[in-house]
Amino acid sequence: MNFTDEERMSLRNILEVNLNVKKDEKVFVITNDPDTLPDQLKGKGRDLFFMAQELYEIGKDICDISLIVATAVRMHGEEPGEEIWKGVLPEAYDEIVREGIWERIKSKKAGEVEGRVFEIVRRSSDRVDAVVAMTYFSTSHTLFRRVLNRSRGTRYASMPLFERYMLTGAMSVDYREIERISVAVKDKLEGAKKIFIEAPNGTELEIYVEGRSFIADTGLLHNPGDFGNLPAGEVFVAPVEGFSRGKLVIEYGPEEGKLPSPVVVYIENGNGVRVEGEGKVRDLLEKKFEEDERCRNVAELGIGTNGGATHVENILEAEKILGTIHVAFGDNSSFGGKVSAPFHQDFVVFQPTVQVEKKGEVFYLHREGKLLIDS
Fold first, then answer.
1. Phi, psi (deg, nearest 5) at residue 105
2. Where does the pLDDT of residue 375 fall: very low under 50, low under 70, confident under 90, or very high at 90 and above?
3. In this predicted structure, what is the pLDDT of residue 374?
4. CA 225/CA 33 separation, integer angstroms
5. What single string gives the DSSP state of each residue in 286-332?
6. What percent of the chain has pLDDT over 70?
7. Distances (CA, A) of 324 to 118, 304, 320
């Protein structure tokens, strides 16, 4: 794959602008062997692999950088395999295996031993200043990512499903402007109790967030332990488990773009209880909901804040589009929630009207897709 000068500059900016990498820092680029992906995903997997390779080559002049090519997992939120754990955290991984807790980590059932994992990684001499995760499926909602952020102070850029056109689109933005909008939204939402969402497609949701912290994903990952997506541009929160209700009407799939017909998820007591419709999205949700009750959890409410994001056919970019909101099911243990699940999937809602209830006030955050951060 031949890259233009503009594309190479965008890749270079991941290290120098987004992660603010210094010459003496240790950076890992992790990606997948595209041949370990299902046949229908191999093409996009190869593009992602070549971009990771190019980033690695660019990084040789910037820092101490390593490339890890690993077997692909099957789903967003699934824990990465031993190739990645051992490649990035060799000393800690060996101790985890010796203590017999690796299989619990891999199955996302670490439970009471999770604290021990954090301790092992904290005490290890493994050096990991920054990670760029260009894997096909997301590592964002995994113990691997959390333990690096919290025990090693690693700066972590998660780039699942990343596509080449993003290098000259949603990545070519003013990150200070994204930061300004995102922080303003976060500040306005802090202390909220309930969030009410309506949209022209029939979505009607009541989301409970009292006591939960909102997180601004600005794309500027400069401080120890910083984490975010690239492309960046959202504010998100883990809703309080067991309370959200209503219906989510899904018009766009995570990779399909506009669906032939909508899929409707009915939500009660914080869980997806019924799915109506046809097609791959409906089949995916039904399958995951039946496989594991934890996958039913209303895991995330997010607000898009990137004015340069426009593409609706890829969830990594679609959820960042300014004026949209997104809702996810499954894992939220990685950003303030209580559910650890081998699944996390977001769905975007366009032209939402969003009303927020805080102690002593009620206000609109969006009206028909217009973000009202100055009102």
1. -65, -50
2. very low
3. 65
4. 27
5. HHHHHH-GGGGBEEEEEEE-BTT---SSSHHHHTTBTT-EEEEEE--
6. 99
7. 35, 5, 8
